[in-house]
Amino acid sequence: MAETAEFFDSYMPKKLTDKPDLIKTNAIFRFDIADAGTWIIDLKNPPGAVRACEATEAADCVITVAKADWERVLDNPSLAMQLFMTGKLKASNIGLAMALQKILG
Questions:
Q1: What predicted TM-score, i.e. pTM, was given to this entire model?
Q2: Which helix (H) or strand (E) holds 79?
């Protein structure tokens, strides 16, 4: 199983370095992961950034999910839609949340 902190601390920063075109998403995502923490992925301001943040920080799209469900999504990004439909994953902006599958994949 993928690990939440490793995703935000290592995987995603490396992905932004390797694929700077992700900035074209032009959005700031906040991930409120219950029992794990809160992170920002900034795909709006070049060169992009990933960092821990406060749960009150503004973002274009806020994803709220439990740690166990989030780690299932990291292992299988296509599972996100099922979790969303069952209310286990919430997104404040559905259009931007849809863009996450290509970013996570």
A1: 0.93
A2: helix 79-85
Q: What is the dihedral of CA 37, 69, 25, 105, to 10 degrees?
A: 120
Residue with the two structure tokens 């370095």: 17
**What's the distance, Cα to Cα, between the start and end of the chain in Å?**
15
Strand partners, 41: 29, 50
Overall domain count for the chain: 1
Spatial separation of the C-alpha atoms in residues 96 and 69, rounded to whole Å? 19
Rg (CA), the chain: 12
- Tokens 């999910």 correspond to what residue? 65
Q: Check which CATH number belongs to the domain holding 72 and give it.
A: 3.30.1050.10
pLDDT at 96 over 60: yes
Domain that holds residue 18: 4-104
**Whole-angstrom distance, CA of residue 33 vs CA of residue 62:** 10
Assess whether pLDDT exceeds 80 at residue 73: yes
Cα 92 to Cα 105: distance, rounded to the nearest angstrom: 21
